[in-house]
Amino acid sequence: MDLCSLSRRDALLGIGSSLAAGGGDVLGGTADDDLCDFEQSDGGGGPVTACSFNVLHETSDEEYPWESRRPRVTEAIDRIAPDLLGVQEARPGRFADLKEAFSDYEWYGPGREGGDESEAVPVAWRSDRFEVRETGEFWLSETPGKPSTGWDARNPRIATWATLTDGGTGTDLWFCNTHVSWANEETRRNSAELLRRRAVERAENGETAVVTLDLNAAPESPSYEVLTGGTDAASPVADGRSEAEEESVSGPEKTYHAFNDRPKERVDYVLTPEAADVREYQTLDVREGEYRSDHLPVAATFEF
């Protein structure tokens, strides 16, 4: 089944979500401290499509203005028709435009500086399918419960999440989205370990974890290994592209192209539940001369 053939949104509902602050714990301990004998919650029913898309903030607007890219971004999202959507580099104006264009989704995403006036990494979900139970955020730092910059990053990095119940199956999901700093590998590895720990906690609570992100790192990196369970510490999420059958994977492997026609490296991911059956994984190709962003959107379709 081609992702483009998925049913389009058929209801226009209001936007709303409840704010719940992230925990105030300080990251500590080692991977051996985790209780990693978790089980994924039981699921079933229809497939879920999750999409990750870095839409790029204002740094390139002079040459590649948002006014020109915006309809291409919305067309790409509409083409994929995701059930779950994670967006990176959503400055307030871009966030507002996306909420207006996709008003049949519920959205959540405070700014990384706190409040609504800074760059966000919002999550969105189909309001005709999912019931939201809670929303929250944490920062990729030593003090994740408050706005903060961690591990030599140049600016604060935030992760936003929502706990959702699938109305068709009753499955409880923890859907998290983030943008990891490019500063250095230690920054990325520590951020990945915090993300993995949070996903483990949710899985132990009976929730099925789904993570979308710009990792700013390739699959060969230590941070990728930490997130996907390639180390001694288990993870409840896996790389959706690696989990999919080869014949069901389409589009280029690399996702960052810097406004060139050939992608340079893979840094964008949809991490699917470790026990899920990944039916499709798609990267939309570069559109020569009609760039959406400097990143390509990626999407995974999976069943429990």
Automatic annotation (TrEMBL):
Pfam families: Exo_endo_phos. One of its GO terms (molecular function) is 3'-5'-RNA exonuclease activity. This is Metal-dependent hydrolase, endonuclease/exonuclease/phosphatase family. Keywords: Endonuclease, Exonuclease, Hydrolase, Nuclease. Residues 221-257 are annotated as: Disordered. Gene3D superfamilies: Endonuclease/exonuclease/phosphatase (3.60.10.10). It comes from Halopelagius longus. InterPro entries: CCR4/nocturin_mRNA_transcr, Endo/exonu/phosph_ase_sf, Endo/exonuclease/phosphatase. It comes from the Archaea. Residues 51-295 form the Endonuclease/exonuclease/phosphatase domain.
